[in-house]
Amino acid sequence: MSRTIFDDINDEISSRNAEAEAKRHVMVNLRPGQKTAAMIELLLRMKKNLSRSSSEGRSGSASSLIAGDLPEKIATYVVSSPKAAEIIRRATETVLKESDGQLGEGSALSILAEVGLLKVETPADRRRAAQMAEIKLKLFGKLQEGAE
Amino acid sequence: MSQTQSPSEPQDRFVIEIDEERLAELPKRALPLATSVNDKFNIRIRKEDVVVLDAIAEAESTSRADVLNRIVQQTLLAQLQKLEGIDTRLAVALGADSLAGYEALEAPWAHDVLSGFIGQLIDDIQEHGGARVSEIQPDEDLNKYLATLEDPEERDRAKGHSETYFHYSQRIKEALK
């Protein structure tokens, strides 16, 4: 089947999403102790052998082993700290200042928000809430007038 | 006894004697096998999550690297604990332990995997003055049957290991070659 213009546009969207996603990440150097290094080494070797025996090309980086689980584990680690509230407040303030007032989807803070441990109200949220209240008032007022 | 003299004038010279024969007889700990294990990795992390790591480090008076190391170790242990069967989990743990040269106080992965059993062992010793595990009698019929099997894999199957265990054992063997 030949490619359509929609396929090309969809590819362009995917590529832009991937670029935006890449910009939201940084590479952090990890120098673990021998225990952690040994487990990573074993899993990477097992993964490398698997990719040799299958036709799929799998990447053999430490990120590919751990990165997917990290936000959840960071959230769990924060919650278990005696200073959890202080950490969450400090991190949320920094993130909101640096971003456009939104918590990134799938991040440790957004997980805390999803489970109700953190609530963020931005000026945009407040403006929206005020607009909604105004619309409701107008609508309710008209309904009341109609009933009278 | 080996003797070493410092290369100074006789009046300042000191002499060191070491009983190398007796030293060689004393039990030795394993040397770290740092050469075989890569200990530098790059991890791709969301910028927002790095902010959280820094906030933890600041609140707990430690470094980002220390916090990240602990979280990575917990992440790996959680993944290990999700594997089917204690025998499979232990096989992977022992595989990683065989690559590591541990510092005296660092618990091997095998201890982490068996922490539930070790807790039970501690409770047994405190409550009953001994470990019930050690009182289990060996199954003589099973042992006699196992002795008739030549193939190690067949022996393991007769002991009740799962298919998952065999699959992982094979992968671990290949990885450790």
Q: Radius of gyration of chain A, Cα only, in angstroms?
A: 24 Å
Encode the helix/strand succession of chain A as letters. HEHHHHHH
End-to-end separation of chain A in angstroms reads 64 Å
Number of helices of chain B: 9
Largest sheet of chain A: none
* Percent in helix of chain A: 55-70%
Query: Rounded to an integer, what's the Rg of chain B over CA atoms?
Result: 24 Å
Strand elements of chain A, count: 1
Spatial order of strands in the largest sheet of chain B: 1-2
Task: Characterize the structure shown.
The complex is a heterodimer of chains A (148) and B (177). Chain A is flat. Chain A is 68% helix and 4% strand. Chain A has one domain (5-30, 61-147). By secondary structure, chain A is mostly helical. Chain B is 57% helix and 8% strand. In chain B, strands 1-2 form a two-stranded antiparallel sheet. In chain B, α2 (47-59) crosses α3 (64-81). The interface between A and B is large, with 55 and 59 residues.
How is the secondary structure organized here?
The complex is a heterodimer of chains A (148) and B (177).
Chain A: H1 5-23, E1 25-30, H2 34-53, H3 62-66, H4 70-79, H5 84-98, H6 108-114, H7 123-147
Helix pairs in contact in A: 4-6
Chain B: E1 2-5, E2 15-18, H1 20-25, E3 41-46, H2 47-59, H3 64-81, H4 86-99, H5 109-113, H6 115-128, H7 140-148, H8 152-159, H9 163-176
Antiparallel strand pairs in B: 1-2
Helix pairs in contact in B: 2-3, 4-9
